[in-house]
Write the structure tokens for this entry.
Amino acid sequence: MAQSLESIPNNVDLSSDRRLQRALEQWQPNFLAWWNQVGPEGFQAHQVYLRTAISVEAGGWAHFDFVRMPDYRWGIFLEPKDGERKIGFGDVMGEPAWEEVPGEHRNSLRRIIVTQADTEPASVEQQRLLGKTCPSMYDLRNLFQVNVEEGRHLWAMVYLLHRHFGRDGREEADELLNRRSGSPDKPRILNCFNEPIDEWLSFFFFAMFTDRDGKYQLSALAQSGFDPLARTTRFMLTEEAHHLFVGEMGVDRVVQRCAELMAQGKDPRKEGAVPLELLQKYCNFWFTLSLDLFGGEISSNAADFFAAGLKGRFREETLDEHKALGETYKLEVPQDGKIVEQEVPLRNAMNEVLRDEYVKDCQRAVDRWNKTLEKAGVTGMKLRLPNRRFHRAVGPCAGFKFNPDGQLISEQEWAANESRWLPTAEDREYVKSLMHPVIATGQMANWIAPPGKGINAMPVNFEYVKPPIV
Ligand SMILES: [Fe+2]
Ligand SMILES: [Fe+2]
């Protein structure tokens, strides 16, 4: 239930635990200082039409209204307890889910939570300058919605750290505000979250591919035997769906604009839009960076997490079998200059199993973009996902070179083609050169098509962001 008068909105009965409440109230000003320092630049005094989580009830959790971002009510919401939940997989399958952290899994769970938590503020930092070059007021609002919700996801994880991990948890929560995306001395934990996102094309691809990795990680954690983690991530997933929409449809609208020009026989580049080959390069880049986030193809850690009931599979409950014992998984790895098939115990391939689901979902989105091309009248040209061996920095393919078809190639061949496959400095400069703020109500930058509809049944040309009240 929303307890809207409390300083920290929550449905975890925070006021019954004074110590915890005080600890979080001490963390709160540090969070706000972080937000003001490295959150969205500019617009902090603007009134933004935002959705705020006020409870977790299906259909009634999202409240839309104009708020100043620093006044956003970041809260702690866990999906309500569903009776006596039993763990649904691994060696502990059938045992009651844990309300407290089991001593033997304390380090692993803390690591899992901190790694997830770190991505939330990181992405806010990465995106902090984008407001200045928004393609429309509609997009500006969506960016800020994503940003405030990543802030809420940080709150969700910090609650778990404070509530369940004692002093170490409090220290980790402080560290989450001390690391900085892209910092040479205190970078964010995962590589992808240190990449700058200083133009909107990268933002849309990031929300499409990198936030989507988040969806799969959160879905695996939604199965966790540690019930508070499972219930937190379930609610985070409902918010995350909008971020994925922003990414997938953002790219779709850039594709649409490019396709419209191509269908008229025009060169998108000459018209100040994004040409298809550049979209393909950005797709190659962000897809592969995001593939790395799933971890190595063969992983004893992943096997241990599954066995221990810490991290399950995507929609584990829909599978026939939940122990993953006595089964194997075949994957292709480079060995002695060629690709060979390797068969590993299924549990050791859990990262790859999750990646499989992710790739399927990404392919579905690429199919949508290709339909958009086709509908606009562009035939014979398509976007595609590169093979998952291409451009990897994690797992057995790291350290080898592959082309986008997944064939092992020489360093020379890579060097000769890299600029055709991945964005070059000039490509990035070109994309940046397109970024000019378009903020008047109902207007849209020239490089992107308008969305099909607005937010929360409002028209596309609604005034989503209003100037500060003076
Ligand atoms: Fe998030
Ligand atoms: Fe997200």
Remarks:
- The CA atoms of residues 191 and 342 lie 27 Å apart.
- The longest helix spans residues 227-263.
